[in-house]
Design brief:
Radius of gyration: 17 Å
Shape: globular
Bound molecules: 2-phosphoglycolic acid
Number of helices: 12
Order of helices and strands: EHEHEHEHHEHHHEHHEHEH
Helix content: 40-55%
Strand order of the largest sheet: 1-2-3-4-5-6-7-8
């Protein structure tokens, strides 16, 4: 049985002191030991967020990292900077990073490999545009994103990865994919992992749905066979996140 994993993606929101206040507010609301709970926060808030989350079930992750060890990469964050302060999860290849910061399937693959090298679990994002969905190429597109993201990743590593399927048209729009649409793609992703590796790897990897997840739709989405939780943007910054994490209560 795969344990559900529900992660908040804070994006570029909350100052470090606001982050501490929000974690203190949400801490009692997200207590649910049946689910892995991750707050992916802006890099500057990682340390105070760790401190605020101490003693709770919240793991602190972040939203990006670079694929080199160190050196002349002004403005970037190295993987060992994250592990040094105890970061266990990093979002890789979010569609906003692909759109505004020129990330590609190839840089996503480099980051995924580097995260594994350092023992950080990547939350690997994939997703189609509305045009791609309308053209009927969603599954082909997602399969290609997955195949490139997992190049040279071993089966042992892949088993521990998290994939977030986030249709771009559903992010921040209030337009959620139906649970059937989300399940169709998450099942195809699991099938793709089985093709690259084997059934055992596919059975272990966790696949989230993301895109306007809220307290009203979480239970239906997370009940689907291949949806192992969610990556939540807007609603992760509100008390509502507690209801999403406790979707099964
Ligand atoms: P949203 O964002 O929940 O606000 O749609 C999801 C995401 O971008 O990860």
């Amino acid at each position: 049985m795969r344990k559900k994993i529900i992660a908040g993606n804070w994006k570029m929101n909350k100052t470090p002191s606001e982050a501490v206040a929000l974690i203190n507010e949400l801490k009692p609301l997200v207590a649910n030991d049946e689910v892995d709970v991750v707050f992916c926060v802006p890099a500057i808030s990682i340390i105070p967020a760790m401190e605020a989350a101490k003693g709770s079930n919240i793991s602190i992750g972040t939203e990006n990292m670079y694929f080199e060890e160190s050196g002349a990469y002004t403005g970037e964050i190295a993987p060992n900077m994250l592990t040094d302060v105890g970061v266990k999860f990093v979002i890789i290849g979010h569609s906003e990073r692909r759109e505004y910061f020129a990330e590609t399937d190839e840089t996503v693959n480099k980051k995924v490999l580097k995260a594994f090298e350092h023992g950080i679990t990547p939350i690997i994002c994939c997703g189609e545009t509305l045009t791609q969905r309308e053209q009927g190429v969603t599954i082909d597109w997602i399969r290609q994103q997955i195949k490139i993201a997992f190049l040279n990743v071993t089966a042992e590593q892949a088993k521990t990865a998290v994939i977030a399927y986030e249709p771009i048209w559903a992010i921040g729009t209030g337009k959620t994919a139906t649970s059937d649409q989300a399940e169709e793609v998450c099942a195809a992703i699991r099938g793709c992992i089985a093709e690259i590796y084997d059934d055992a790897t596919a059975a272990e990897i966790r696949i989230q749905y993301g895109g306007s997840v809220n307290a009203g739709n979480a239970a239906e989405l997370f009940a689907k066979a291949d949806i192992d939780g969610g990556l939540v943007g807007g609603a992760s910054l509100k008390p509502e996140f507690g209801n999403i994490v406790n979707y099964n209560k």
